[in-house]
Design brief:
Length: about 325
Amino acid sequence: MSRDPGRRDPSRVADGLVAQVFAGSHQAAARLISLVEDGEREGLEALRTLYPRTGKAYTVGITGPPGAGKSTLVDALTKRIRAAGETVGIIAIDPTSPFTGGALLGDRVRMQDHATDPGVFVRSMATRGHLGGLAPATSDVIHILDALGCAFILIETVGAGQGEVEVVSAADTVIVVTVPGLGDAVQMLKAGIMEIGDLFVVNKADRPEADRAVTEINMMLGLAPERGWRPPALKTVAIGGEGVEEVLAAIRSHRAHLEAAGQLAERRRERRRGEVLHALEAQIREEVLAQARADGTLEAVVEQVADGRLDPHSAAKRLLRGR
C-alpha cells in the first residue's frame, strides 16, 4: 500500500530535525521543542534519535520567590558565560496564560540582549498547570538543548514560592535566590526549598538588611546535616552585574566537587530514574484513558462516582483493570 503523499512521515520529519539540531540550527530546535511540548509523534521520534548523544551540558536551576530577580540573574550569568566563550541554553518557566495556554511572560522581553547571539538559545515554557515550578516537558527540552551543543543550560523556575522543589530533579546545581526585605529569610526558606539549594544568592544586596539575610541563611545552613558540600551564601546586585562573577565561580566549584566525589554521575542517574517513571506514568495514563473513552468505561465510572456508588480510588482501579 502506497503512503499518502499528503501526510508527513514522522520518522523522516524527526530525522531531518535531529540532523539540523546537531548542526546547530536554532530554528530546528525551536520547532522540535514545540512538537515535544504538544506530544506529537515526530517529537518523540526525534528524542529517541538524539538521546544517545546527550549528557554533555551542565544544568543550573535557578529558583526562589517572585520578585527576587531570577531573570536578571540569568541574564547576567549568561553574559559571563558567553564572555568565557561557552554557549548557553535558557529555559524560562512562566505561568500559563488563561487565554492561550502558552507562557504568560515572553522570553525575548526579558532576554533582549541575547536575542541575536547565536551562542544563546532562549525558550519560555508554560507550566500548563504543572506544580513544582517546572513545565511538564522540561527534561525533554534539556535534552534538545544538550544536543544543540549548549555547554550550560540555565533553568529559571516559575517563582511559586516554597513548594518549588522539582527543579532539583532537573539540575546539576540548584541556586536559591532571595532578596532583603521579604521578612524573616529563615522563615521564607525553611520549608523544602532550603534543603535543595547548592548555592544561595541574596540579590538586590544594595538594599538594607542584605548582610542580615546572608547571616540568617548561613545560620540555617549550619543546622543542616553535613553532606560534603557547604552551600555558600553570596550577595549580588544582578542588574549591575555585581557579584555575578562570584556566583559563576561558585557554580564551577560545585561542579568540580560533584565530579571529584562521583556525585554528578549519581545525580544524573537518579534524574534518569525520575524521567523513566514520569514517562511511564504519562504513557499508562494515556493508554488507560484512550481505552476507557473508546469503550465508554470512563463516563460509566464517573457517573457512579457522581452518584456516590463508587469512590474515586476504586474508580481508578477499575479503569486500570480494564486496560
